[in-house]
Amino acid sequence: MAYETLDISTQTPILSWAGHELGPQETQMVKNVASLPFVYKHISLMPDVHLGKGALVGSVIATKDAVIPAAVGVDIG
Question: Distance of CA 14 to CAs 41, 75, 77, Å?
Answer without folding.
Answer: 9, 25, 23
